[in-house]
């Protein structure tokens, strides 16, 4: 009995230690750095300067807003693309199911960096895609796609799409299809069956997918730095510049904290709104 | 009740773990956090009589041909690890700074950085002085006009790898008439202009275009030039800020005019002969990238051997022929005259005084304004 009780702790220990070392400790140091003052040449000193936080916000509010806007749009686009696709793979793909799933995961075989760089070529001013977009009038004749908000959002959407597809697929895949038949037996239309049966059952997948997409997308800086120009910089690019270029470590740390807090607020509100049972799953239906 | 007890115990365990780990980490890292300067005197990197073992060099991309390193390895018996991991001065500094501060170089024996960064690292105590008796070939062959730069008048801790000029790199087909820095603000090239993320390249060039004496420019003049760039970014005139990767934008046709470095254009011509370096009417910015020996370099003797090797005119000729930057070694032009007369006439490798008549050496912002100027420029790059 006694040894049996210890088992859960032993199972938790590696994860807890990992988190403690690589999350809690760095956070602690980052918190201290965020309250320091000084420069690299003179050294940084802990002066408990809480003004670093409001200063950082007022200096970079545009980029914060832009990050949440880009990530929000990309998440919605991902959802709109991913849901029908996941639905088709789960219910309609038949023997192509595995091949299609492989196709969803296939981009991961190439590194993130190279895939994003490839978009530079795909969206270059003289590329066929941009020519077509200009021809149909989606882009003005002398306009461009690369180094605009559109290209950054497109890059985010592309890069995070699998993180949306997989959880939705997995929650749909577990669904008992007889429930749909039951809906029909009860004279429900296809639309109502979808809204009242399928959608609620896939909600945990949708919520997991939106979180897996939105959270990393807000802090992403690769897409903005490769596909955007100066006016598409996201908060990740600012933190990178503060840390690597001008070596203003306190501001970089403060910005990171603010970003984390803002994401937390947005996520908590979202889960409140979407319902935490859907995320955690109820007794019969554990989350994906 | 059972689960509640377990939950509380779990919480207690987590707290204990966290506190324990934090205390451990604190003790381990001590007060090293974030501090800058290394204490004590600058040391001289001492040389043994014979070099052996491994040499680790960090340099910029496109700076060495494919044959030089194998030939050096064969001649010296050393093994060379040559990393092209310097893409801009600030990034390599930020990457190495935490280690340099503790007197370690992550195994690097030579790092190649631009003049101002060499001085900054030296002032922070991150570099070692050269043992001049170990580098006779460098002493003998360094060209006169690079022997006493203002940042290191005795060349006591730096030896130029290559010098170069910052000016305009242009696609002649798309922008045939470009002669002035002010052409980057010409609406005809809207959205087809890129400029460098290097503060000390881009901003002085813009100041020159406005007739400012860059050597004595005030903080206000630096700020005004940054403001001018900001307006051009906001209007969509300037497409993006780049490091060495502006070459990609030119090659793809996304940029017609770039603020760029002299030698790069020559290498791009292999793909597209229309790409050329244009010396602006207002002049250029002249700089050098220098080999320095960081503190904690494991094999300074090998570093000296490598410096001597690249300062042999025959070896240098091979490197300069590849990268087309200004060579810091005398005697190279004579070699080219025999072997490749066209290269001997290249004004990018051997700029004449007439060619460089309006150029300035890379200026440093006023000491009391440098921090604000760097911050302002960074906020420009990140769209603030």
Question: Top keywords for this entry?
Answer:
heterodimer; A: 288 residues; MetI-like fold; 2 strands; globular; disordered C terminus; B: 384 residues; alpha/beta; D-Maltodextrin-Binding Protein, domain 2; 10 strands; 39% helix
Shape of chain B from CA axes? globular
pLDDT averaged over residues of chain A: 90
Quick one: biggest sheet of chain A? 2 strands, antiparallel
Annotated CATH homologous superfamily of the largest domain in chain B: Periplasmic binding protein-like II
Straight-line N-to-C gap of chain B:
55 Å
Number of helices of chain B: 14
Description of the molecule:
The complex is a heterodimer of chains A (288) and B (384). With 288 residues, chain A is mainly alpha-helical. Chain A has a single domain, classed as MetI-like fold, CATH 1.10.3720. In chain A, 74% of the residues lie in helices and 3% in strands. In chain A, strands 1-2 form a two-stranded antiparallel ribbon. In chain A, a hairpin with a 3-residue loop joins strand 1 (36-39) and strand 2 (43-46). The longest helix of chain A has 41 residues, at 52-92. The radius of gyration of chain A is 23 Å and the shape is globular. Chain B is an alpha/beta fold. Chain B folds into two domains: 54-157 and 293-311, Periplasmic binding protein-like II (D-Maltodextrin-Binding Protein, domain 2, 3-Layer(aba) Sandwich); 164-286 and 359-381, Periplasmic binding protein-like II (D-Maltodextrin-Binding Protein, domain 2, 3-Layer(aba) Sandwich). Chain B has helices at residues 2-29, 68-76, 89-100, 115-123, 136-141, 199-209, 219-234, 246-252, 262-268, 300-310, 313-323, 332-339, 341-344, 370-381, and strands at residues 54-58, 79-83, 110-114, 159-171, 193-196, 238-242, 257-261, 275-278, 285-292, 360-361. In chain B, strands 1, 2, 3, 4, 5, 6, 7, 8, 9 and 10 form a ten-stranded mixed beta sheet that branches. In chain B, helix 6 (199-209) packs across helix 7, helix 7 runs parallel beside helix 14 (370-381) and helix 11 (313-323) crosses helix 12. The chains are: A mainly alpha (288), B alpha/beta (384). Chains A and B meet through helix 1, strand 1, helix 2 and helix 10 of A and helix 1, helix 3, strand 6 and helix 14 of B.
């Amino acid at each position: 009995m006694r040894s049996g009780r210890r088992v859960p702790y032993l199972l938790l220990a590696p994860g807890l230690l990992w988190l403690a070392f690589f999350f809690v400790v760095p956070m602690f140091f980052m918190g201290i750095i965020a309250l320091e003052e000084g420069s690299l040449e003179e050294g940084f000193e802990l002066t408990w300067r809480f003004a670093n936080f409001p200063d950082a916000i007022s200096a970079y509010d545009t980029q914060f807003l832009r990050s949440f806007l880009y990530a929000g749009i990309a998440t919605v686009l991902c959802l709109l693309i991913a849901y029908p696709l996941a639905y088709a793979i789960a219910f309609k793909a038949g023997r192509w199911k595995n091949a299609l799933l492989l196709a969803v995961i296939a981009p991961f075989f190439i590194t993130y960096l190279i895939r994003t760089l490839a978009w530079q070529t795909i969206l270059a001013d003289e590329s066929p895609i941009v020519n077509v977009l200009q021809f149909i009038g989606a882009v003005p004749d002398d306009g461009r796609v690369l180094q605009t908000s559109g290209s950054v959002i497109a890059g985010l959407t592309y890069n995070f799409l699998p993180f949306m597809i997989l959880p939705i697929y997995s929650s749909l895949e577990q669904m008992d299809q007889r429930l749909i038949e039951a809906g029909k037996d009860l004279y429900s239309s296809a639309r109502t069956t979808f809204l009242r049966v399928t959608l609620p059952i896939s909600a945990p997948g949708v919520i997991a997918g939106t979180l897996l997409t939105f959270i990393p997308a807000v802090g992403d800086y690769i897409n903005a730095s490769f596909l955007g120009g100066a006016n598409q910089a996201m908060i990740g690019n600012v933190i990178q510049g503060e840390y690597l270029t001008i070596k203003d470590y306190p501001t970089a740390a403060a910005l990171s904290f603010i970003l984390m807090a803002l994401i937390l607020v947005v996520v908590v509100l979202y889960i409140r709104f979407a319902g935490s049972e859907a995320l955690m799953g109820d007794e019969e239906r554990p989350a994906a | 009740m059972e689960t509640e007890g377990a939950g509380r115990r779990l919480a207690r365990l987590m707290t204990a773990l966290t506190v324990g780990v934090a205390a451990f980490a604190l003790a381990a890292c001590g007060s090293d956090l974030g501090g800058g300067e290394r204490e004590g005197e600058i040391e001289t990197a001492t040389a043994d009589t014979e070099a052996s073992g491994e040499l680790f060099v960090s340099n910029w991309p496109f700076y060495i041909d494919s044959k030089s390193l194998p030939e050096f390895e064969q001649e010296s018996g050393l093994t060379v690890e040559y990393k092209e991991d310097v893409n801009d001065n600030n990034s390599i500094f930020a990457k190495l700074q935490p280690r340099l501060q503790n007197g370690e170089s992550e195994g690097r024996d030579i790092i190649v950085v631009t003049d101002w960064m060499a001085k900054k690292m030296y002032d922070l105590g991150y570099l070692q002085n050269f043992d001049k008796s170990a580098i006779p070939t460098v002493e003998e062959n360094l060209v006169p006009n690079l022997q006493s730069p203002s940042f290191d008048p005795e060349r006591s801790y730096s030896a130029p790898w290559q010098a170069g000029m910052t000016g305009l790199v242009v696609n002649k087909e798309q922008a045939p008439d470009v002669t002035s820095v002010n052409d980057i603000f010409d609406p005809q090239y809207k959205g087809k202009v890129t400029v460098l993320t290097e503060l000390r390249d881009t901003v002085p060039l813009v100041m020159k275009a406005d007739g400012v004496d860059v050597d004595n420019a005030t903080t206000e003049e630096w700020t005004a030039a940054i403001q001018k760039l900001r307006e051009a970014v906001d209007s969509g005139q300037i497409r993006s800020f780049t490091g060495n990767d502006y070459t990609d934008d030119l090659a793809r046709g996304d940029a017609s005019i770039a603020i760029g470095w002299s030698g790069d254009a020559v290498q791009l011509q292999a793909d597209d002969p229309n790409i050329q370096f244009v010396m602006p009417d207002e002049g250029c910015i002249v700089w050098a990238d220098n080999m320095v020996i960081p503190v904690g370099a494991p094999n300074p003797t090998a570093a000296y051997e490598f410096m001597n090797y690249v300062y042999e005119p025959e070896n240098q000729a091979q490197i300069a022929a590849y990268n087309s930057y200004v060579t810091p070694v005398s005697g190279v032009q004579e070699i080219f005259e025999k072997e490749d007369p066209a290269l001997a006439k290249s004004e990018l490798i051997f700029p004449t005084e007439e060619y460089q008549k309006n150029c300035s050496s890379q200026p440093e912002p006023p000491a009391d304004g440098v921090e604000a100027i760097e911050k302002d420029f960074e906020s420009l790059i990140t769209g603030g």
